Amino acid sequence: MLFPALFFLLLGCLTSWLVIHFCLQAGIGQGGDTQPQHHHTHTGVIPRIGGLGIVMGFALTYLLCFIFLDRTDNKSLIHYGIFAGAGAAFLLGLIDDFHPLGAKVKLLAQIIIAILAHECGLSIEKVRIPFSDVIVTLGFFSMGLTVVWIVAIMNLINLIDGLDGLAGGIGLMMMALLAFLAFQSGVAISFILALGMGGSILGFLFHNFPPAKVYMGDSGAYLIGFVIAALSLVNSEKGTILAALIAPVLALALPIADVAYAMLRRGIQGLPIFRPDQGHIHHRLIRSGLSRQRTVIFLYAISLFALLGGLLAFAYQGRYLPIFLGFAFVMILFTLKGQKVSPGSVRNVLTESLRARQDTRNALYLRDWFVVEVDRVDSGHNLWADYRFVLKKMGFCRAELTINGTERTFYLPDTPHADNSLLWSETQQIGPEVVLKLYAAKDNFSQRQFTIIADVATEAWSKATVRWREVNAVSLDFDSKASEASNYRQQKARNLYRPTY
Question: Is 284 within a domain?
Answer without folding.
Answer: no
